[in-house]
Amino acid sequence: MSLVFPAPAPVTLPVAGGGSYPVHRIYCVGRNYAEHAQEMGFSGREPPFFFMKPNDALVPVAEGETGSIAYPSLTSNLHHEVELVVALGPGARIFGYALGLDMTRRDLQGEMKKQGRPWEIGKAFEQSAPIGPIVPIASTGELNAGAITLDVNGQRRQTGDLKDLIWNVAETLEKLADAWTLQAGDLIFTGTPAGVGAVARGDVMQAHIDGLPALKVRVA
Asked: Has residue 5 been placed in a domain?
């Protein structure tokens, strides 16, 4: 059967050391650091919950380069959220890790919460997930601890440690697998520490996780 129009190109991400990683799905974990949960008005070790982003949310940024994202429409309150990203390989085993940003139209998300409606308009928009190269786990070992930070224009905004995840990576994967069939190519944004806040046009965000290349992104 012939296609009625050309199929979109597959979405791939660069792998440190060579090769490309084909993306299947993008899962995100909400409120997975205690201090961030508290700043969002929640507390305690609540059961994990998930939302998703489309593949075209990804903005690959090469190591040592400054990526660029457009300031999105419909918002005046665009927030940064730095996150460890887990990349799954064959057998849904961890292939590697990356550093990512879960950009959020916070005003739109907040309005959807008030109305009891889905969050997609606040989370799942184009260019809402800048991401650095995927580093194979063979190079990093398991990332269960280590500093995670984000600076905006050289000023520290977010700081935390991977060991403070409410639901660690293994627990998160187990919970995800209860609801979905995890596959090679799946990415999991594992949550953000406290300190989320707004960025403006022209701001430069620089994110860091111990053991991974830094991620630098400008809001165009």
From this structure: no
